[in-house]
Amino acid sequence: MSVAIEQHGPIPDSNYLRGRVLPTYSIDSIVLHTMVGWIAGADARFKNSSSIVSAHYGVRMYDVPVWQWVSENDVAYHAGNWIVNLTSIGIEHEDAGKYNDPRPDILYQTSGKLVAEIAARYHIPIVRGTGGPGIYDHRDVSDKPTACPDSLDTDRIIQIALNIGVPAPSPVPTVTGVPVLGDSTLRFRKVVENLYAVNPDAPLAAVDAYEAFADKGLRAELMLAQAIHETDWFRFTGRAKADWHNPCGLGVGSNSGAVDCHFPTWEAGVRAHMGHNFAYFLPVGSPHVPGFCDQDPRHFDHKGYTNDVRSWDGHWAVPGNGYGAAVASLL
Asked: For a designed S-S bond to 129, which of 16, 77, 134, 273 qualifies (C-beta 3.0 to 4.6 A apart)?
């Protein structure tokens, strides 16, 4: 008999991503968390639009059913690592605020059964993850230091899931490309709506520039998605600052050779962003696009990369594994 699931959505759009866009980043792992409290507290946090956090499931200490907030077809913001979010299912566990104490048997039995069922659906090997498919503690995948899931016994959950059984992993599905050059779509307006839902203070002049240049041969909705990815929804929480008018990280880096490009206006910065993409994707030897390619102080001749977001990997971002897919997923 399948573990009982009770739906507890919807949660705000700002706290999860609808859809898993690229089959390259299909589900291949499960990440285990502890709540540092009770499920009602997790429910309140996930339904707070300013928290920007969620999980797919919550397992209770003394009772079933399991609570579900986010569909497995959607991306929960739980791992503290964007690529892991794209490829994983997140499971929270109650601990009554005593995160270093033992948990009761019913929690482990329920969690083990849930892990086995998820693993069977996606052919995830029920083993400790070591950089590939598997079962992970939150602390092993997060980009920020965390002790989560604290004293939760992940090995016990894995053993219970193994006792239930799961099929062998299946081959990785075929990759579907996402072009950078091409006509924009009505999806641009949806990207704008989502941007302002997350950050009402995003600069309107930058958004207007992307829309104004939507007929130049680059997909404006993808350009804006790349800017969102690079600037943390135009909150500029990294090295670049808002007054640089640099929406896509041109020249920005942590090494001594970083150029840190600054532009006088958002229009100039957006033109530089688009010009840099023209230089990547237009055929070698083709004419430059006036007013765009000359905005980037690191201007170079066209490289003629394959018209696919995956061409950004290792070029726009280094090492950049999964960079293109992460941007495309924002659509």
From this structure: 134
